[in-house]
Amino acid sequence: MLAADVVVYGDGGGKAPSWPKPIVGRGRVAKLIAGTLTQAKEVGVRFRAAHINGQPGVMFVDDEDRIGAVMSVDVADGLVQTIRGVTNPDKLAHLGPLLDAREVLRKNRR
After folding, report:
1. Which of 13, 67, 99, 100 could form a disulfide with 88 if both were Cys (CB 3.0 to 4.6 A apart)?
2. What CATH number did the domain enclosing 25 receive?
3. Which structural domain range is residue 17 located in?
């Protein structure tokens, strides 16, 4: 499902955890997505399908439906070309109550 040259971009805006540089390539992106989903499960965050800026995507939410991140997916020719992840709270605030990702990570390291 991933294009050979798929790219993941992260946007934490310096205010939330994110990937500082684009991640490129099917293998690296597959590992990143698998790791992200595993970490989300470990800290009690689930994801639900959503449309993000008109694109298919997911919202990562906790048990109180607070939003911690969104990811949108650009698909062309049946393959995922680009994934854009946003954790920047300034860009998520209009979607509803927010989850503080750093706080969740701190709690689960104890």
Report:
1. 13
2. 3.10.450
3. 2-109
Beta bridge partners of 85: 10, 71
Tell me how crowded residue 1 is: count the other CB atoms within 10 A of its CB. Answer: 10
Q: Tokens 């995922």 label which residue? A: 80
Amino acid at position 72, single letter: S
Lookup: tokens for 95: 């979607």
Spatial distance between the Cα atoms of 103 and 3, rounded to a whole number of angstroms:
34
Counting runs of H as helices and runs of E as strands, what totals does the chain give? 3, 6
Express as a percent the part of the chain with pLDDT over 70: 94
Distance CA 38, CA 9 (A): 19
Are 44 and 62 in contact by the 8 Å Cβ rule? The answer is yes
Q: Are 32 and 8 in contact (CB under 8 A)?
A: yes
Total count of domains within the chain: 1
